[in-house]
Amino acid sequence: MTGYAWIRNETQEKHKVSGTDSNFRSDTLSEDKINSIIETFRQLNDYNFIWKFETVDRLRDLPENVMIKPWLSQNDILGYKNVKAFISHSGMLSTLESTWHGVPVVRIPLFLDQARNLKKLMNAGAAVKVDFNEITVENLKSALLEVLKNPKYKTNMEPRSKFFSDQPEKPLDRAI
């Protein structure tokens, strides 16, 4: 099954979580961090995870609730209504796309503007932070469960999403 068909499959009871941040190469993570992420996904088997990972053959013993693809359109995936959370580094494009689609976020900021972007979403009650140097099964699982189980994150993201989409003209019309 392709990544998009897997995400679209609404006959599955499981909600989807996307870790498809397009500008960060997941395959540059240390083995410890990769193993922590995979084990977190394994333990959260009530959810399905789709993860952009550039060197698919490097990963072994993946749980059944994880799909790995070398590239997927982050914006397209976030647009599916059964995607309930997004794991992201908090780059500007990721922040805009998750806000547009109203998807709450677990953020792992790395550099540049990401801390500022994260702070805005955290102040709005729409995101949870995991420090990059503290990616462990316990920390990542706790952050994911907080965003997935506590409706305040989705509720707090909704007005931000509506603000983005409630414009008198389409962006393309405004650009022309």
Let me know the average pLDDT: 82
Radius of gyration: 16 Å
Q: Estimate what percentage of residues fall within beta strands.
A: 15-25%
Give helix % range. 40-55%
CATH architecture: 3-Layer(aba) Sandwich
Q: What is the tally of beta strands?
A: 6
CATH class: Alpha Beta
Count of discrete structural domains: 1
Write out the strand line-up for the largest beta sheet, numbering strands in chain order: 3-2-1-4-5-6
The CATH topology name reads Rossmann fold
Which overall shape is indicated by the principal axes computed on the Cα atoms? globular
The helix tally amounts to: 8
Major sheet summary line: 6 strands, parallel
Low-pLDDT ranges = none
CATH superfamily: Glycogen Phosphorylase B
Q: Distance between the terminal alpha carbons, to the nearest Å?
A: 39 Å
* SSE sequence, one letter per element: HEHEEHEHEHEHHH
Briefly note the structural class of the backbone.
alpha/beta
Protein name: Glucuronosyltransferase
Keywords: Glycosyltransferase, Transferase
Family: Belongs to the UDP-glycosyltransferase family.
Organism: Polypedilum vanderplanki
